[in-house]
Design a protein that fits this description.
The protein has 190 residues and is an all-alpha fold. Helix content is 54%, strand content 2%. A two-stranded antiparallel sheet has the order 1-2. It is globular.
Length: 190
Amino acid sequence: MIELKLLGDSSLQPADITDGQKTDDLRQLANDMIDVQLSMIADCTDADVFFTPIDEAADDPHAVSKEEVGMAWTLGHVIVHCCASSEESTFLAAELARGVENHGRSRYEPHWSTIKTIRQCREALEDSRRMRLATLEVWPRQPDLDKRYEVWSGGPVANAMELYVVGHMHEYSHFDQIREIVRQAKAART
């Protein structure tokens, strides 16, 4: 079983986390990641989803517009971003496990402004769980774990198991941000 706290250990590489793991461990990882986020937002309301927190470190160089670069992310924004990151790595990992050479990104992230309710956040998380688990069903019984590629320039060189974990590591890096948004939103309600 992959312990979630390992995902936050910056001294570890994806290979360190997946060493000795099986596809069932990846299934458990996907379920654990979604379950933790659902528990973090369990008491949230619709108002919490589009509440704009104070975030002095807000800086998104990949934002879709100049206006959004320094904007603090809402809860809905973080949720769709986390889902998109892990979904991308799981879809690409499925191809790599089947022996397909990497051919670029496989990412879809709905614009954060379309997420307005807590129900939409929960549905996004459950849809993401379903997709992540489904990608493991297309892995062959004996996945190609020799094929590797550099995930991003200067990033890890990963095989299918490691790539599956890469998106989850990124997702995990947003957990404190989710907790802080929820904390601020609840404080603003009282």
